[in-house]
Amino acid sequence: MGKRIAVVTGGIGGLGTEICKALALAGRTVIAVDLDSREQRIAGFKREVEGLDIHFAAADVADHEDCGRLVRDIEERHGSLDILVNNAGITRDSTLRKMDRAQWDAVLDVNLGSAFNLCGHAIAGMQARAFGRVVNISSVSGQTGNFGQTNYAAAKAGLHGFTMSLAREVASKGITVNSVSPGYIHTAMTGAMPPEVLDKVAASIPAGRLGQPTDIARTVAFLSDDAAGYITGANVPVNGGLFMSF
Ligand code: NAD
Q1: Which of 152, 156, 163, 185 is catalytic?
Q2: Which of 25, 37, 156, 244 could share a disulfide with 139, CB 3.0–4.6 Å?
Q3: Which structural domain range is residue 44 located in?
């Protein structure tokens, strides 16, 4: 068997970069997918992952046709698409009263529509090869809701409904579909928050600190392992105890 081919959307971002690295170190050929408009960050990403089996491909995950082209290209060039990590995400925070339709649509399209666009095109190949691992990156906001995030929380909660339904459809075909729900993680996004706000956030987390991108990456690597075939339709919270449920 050749190396498994993994796709990580939003692959050059804070969490995406660590997920790419963890999957490459686990022996996968990794394709980081992101918008080609991020030229400087793409160059920085390429420097950071130099020497690893990680490649870059441009695509807009909110565009159904572009996702079809991407999946066909990868299957032709690499022979398969075995692991799909739907990690691309954006926020357009606003209270509902002030939120316009564009803020709603953009967040739903990138965070939730992307899972339909990519799984829709990739699932037939996974079924034909009788192997697949899909990991959708959701958020604790999707479990608890969050002030100013009706759009984001709806998309992230929706992602889990998508996860459970697709998991049922493909479980007998060697394909697992799971979601990971990060809490507060140290990234550029949280780095932009005022230090006193971050201190308050950290104090509200039972672990007493924010998580690291590697905490998420390790979880994705675990769920996408060949040996994780009996875990499907699950949501794995990685939040330092911020929100507990069963
Ligand atoms: P990030 O902004 O660093 O990375 C997101 C990446 O997605 C960016 O590189 C961006 O260019 C890419 N992207 C955006 N729109 C795209 C599109 N239409 N097509 C292709 N790529 C697109 O954010 P991050 O913190 O690394 O977050 C990664 C994921 O984790 C997101 O889904 C986010 O909602 C989720 N998450 C993050 C945190 C956190 O604390 N950072 C917490 C919970 C959930």
Answers
A1: 152
A2: 156
A3: 5-237
